Amino acid sequence: MSHPKVSIVILNWNGKKYLEDFLPSVLVSTYPNFNIVVGDNASTDGSVEFLKQTYPGIVIVQNDANYGFTGGYNRVLEHVDADYYILLNSDIEVVPGWIEPVIDLMKSDELIAAAAPKIKSFKEKTHFEHAGAAGGFIDHFGYPFCQGRIFFDIEEDRGQYNQSKEVFWASGAALFIKKKYWDACGGFDERFFAHMEEIDLCWRLKNMGLKVMYCAESEVYHVGGGTLNAENPFKTYLNFRNNLTLLKKNLPFWRALCIIPIRLCFDFIALLRFLSEGKRKDAWAVSRAHQSFFARLFNKSVTTVKSSERNYNLHGMYKKSVIIAFFLKHKKHFTDLDGQDFM
Fold first, then answer.
1. Is 93 strand, coil or helix?
2. Which end of the chain has fewer CB within 10 Å, C or N?
3. Residues 6+ apart with CB under 8 A from 262
4. At what angle are helices 253-276 and 233-250 packed, to 10 degrees?
C-alpha cells in the first residue's frame, strides 16, 4: 500500500515552551511517510536555537518577521513539498496513530480537500476544545460553531459525535489539506492575519465544489489560547473584523448585501453587551473592527474564488440563526438543533 508524503508543519512564534512540551508526541507518530517542518515567525525566545540543538533532523523555515498565522504559513509552505500538509498548532498533544485515519478518509474521495480530527481539551481531556471540537459549522448569518461547542458552551465527549462526516469548516489547529488544493485556492488570505482564516479557506474550497471532513477516528488534545486568550481585545477585534470579511468574500453578492447589515446589527448588540459588562476595550474593538472592514470594503483579495468558478457546496450551513437557537431557545448543544435545518 502506498503512503502519500505528509508534512506536519508547525508555525511558531515565541512558543519554545510548547515545542518542548508537545513536539515529542509528534515525533512518535506512527504514519510511515512523514516529516516535520517548523516555520518560525521571527521568534525572540530562543525557539530556533532550541530546535537546532535538540532536534537537528527537523526542518526549520525562518520568516524574517511575524506575519501572523496567515502570512506565516503562506511563506513557510512555499518551501514544503508533500502530498498532504498538516497545519498543527504548537500547543497540541497527539497520539501515535493520529495521522492514519484522516489520510485514509481523505484518500477515499478525490473531492475531499481538507479535514480535521476530533479536537479535545488538553486541560480537561473528557471535554471538547473550543477551537474545532468535532467539526465546524456556520449559520445563516456567518456565526461559526461546532459539534461539541456552541459559543462558550463546551460539551463532554460521550461518544455523541463518533461518526465521521462532511462539515463546513475544519479547525486550523490541526488542519489536514491536500497540497494541490492548497495551491489551487491560493492558501490563506493574509488580510485575516489570524482567526477565522481557516473558515475562509474551507469556504473557498467549498465554493470550488470540494468537501471538508471531520474524522472521528482521530483525536488530538489542544491547550488553546496560547497566543491570544479569550479575554484579549485584539482577539475580539480580529474575530469581528474577519467575520464580516468572511461574509463579504464568500457569499453571493446579493445575499451578502442582505446578510451583512443584519450582522452589523447583531454586532452592535454585542458592543452594548460589552459596555454593560464593563468591557470597554472589547466594545472599542468591535467599533474598530467595523471601521477597518469598511475602510477596505472594496479591496480585492488574490485568494477570492471568482464567481464564474464557483460551484457552491453549502453542506454544513445552518439555515437559521444559532444566536436565536442558543440564547432565546436555549439549545445549548449541537444535538439540540434540528438536522433538517442544515444544508
1. strand
2. N
3. 141
4. 160
Specify the DSSP class assigned to residue 328: I
Contact 4, 103 (CB under 8 A): yes
Residue 283: partners with Cβ closer than 8 Å, 6 or more residues away: 271, 272, 274, 275
Give the pLDDT confidence of 50-88 residue by residue, as tens digits.
999 999 999 999 999 999 999 999 999 999 999 999 999
- Where do the domains of the chain lie, and which CATH numbers do they carry? 7-343 (3.90.550.10)
Tell which residue, 225, 220, 114, has the closest CA to residue 169.
Answer: 114
DSSP states of 2-38 as a string?
Answer: ----EEEEEEESS-HHHHHHHHHHHHT---SSEEEEE
Cα(45)–Cα(48) distance, integer angstroms: 8
Alpha-carbon distance 119 to 129, whole Å?
6
Instruction: Cell numbers for 231, please give them.
Output: 479575554
C-alpha grid cell for residue 334? 449541537
Percent composition of the chain: helix, strand, coil (DSSP 3-state, to 5): 40, 20, 40
Q: Encode pLDDT of 256-307 as tens digits.
A: 999 999 999 999 999 999 999 999 999 999 999 999 999 988 766 545 555 5
User: Is 322:139 a contact under the CB 8 Å cutoff?
Assistant: yes
Alpha-carbon gap, residue 88 to 8, rounded angstroms: 7
Q: How many CA atoms lie within 13 A of 308 on its CB side?
A: 0
The C-alpha cell of 236 is what? 475580539
